[in-house]
Amino acid sequence: MEKSINARISNRHVHLTKEVFDKLFDGELTIKTKLNQVGEFASNETLTIKVGDKKIENVRVVGPLRKYTQVEISKRDARALGVNPPVRRSGDLEDTPKIVLETTKGSVEIDGLIIANRHVHMTPEEAKALGIIDKQIVKIKIDGEKSGIVDAAVKVSDNGYFELHIDTDDANAFLLEDNDKVTMII
Prior knowledge:
By secondary structure, this protein is mainly beta. It folds into two domains: about 1-5 and about 120-185, Beta Barrel (Barwin-like endoglucanases); about 10-115, no CATH class. About 15% of the residues lie in helices and about 45% in strands. The protein contains four helices and 15 strands. The strands form two sheets. Strands 2, 3, 4, 5, 6, 7, 8, 9 and 10 form a nine-stranded mixed β-sheet that branches. A six-stranded mixed barrel has the order 1-14-11-13-12-15. The longest helix has 7 residues, at about 20-25. The chain is globular and about 50 Å long. It starts with a strand and ends with a strand. The relative contact order is 0.24.
């Protein structure tokens, strides 16, 4: 079975706990842009991520606040920082590299640096209708000048909005633009 789906390009970003947020910022996390995943948003707040003397500034915090702190970067970012984080599902943070999060208010060193795996968001109802289960691997067919087929993990959640999330490295490799159509093969 094949199903058309939008590809959304995910740039580097950070998810924070309330405790870490309060160490780095005053006030509340504020909405810059709502995301398609129900209740999630790109915030106005940004910070710097650092490994040793290497850093990337203006990394966006994605809300709402979570039960874990996590930094998601691309392989290109990892090379710039001189680290080799694993490719993981969001929240799978065991044995991940340490990274410093810094703002004008303060800094915090955390575990939780990953390259997010490609994933397809969907609701439990959509998954059931498609005969798919959480964490199942599906194929994504990308047409165009640099076409190809890649694997993506399914992420079933109540706030899931049916779309593929890939990082900037993958998007650039296939010459994809945000919201381009791709095909999910089940």
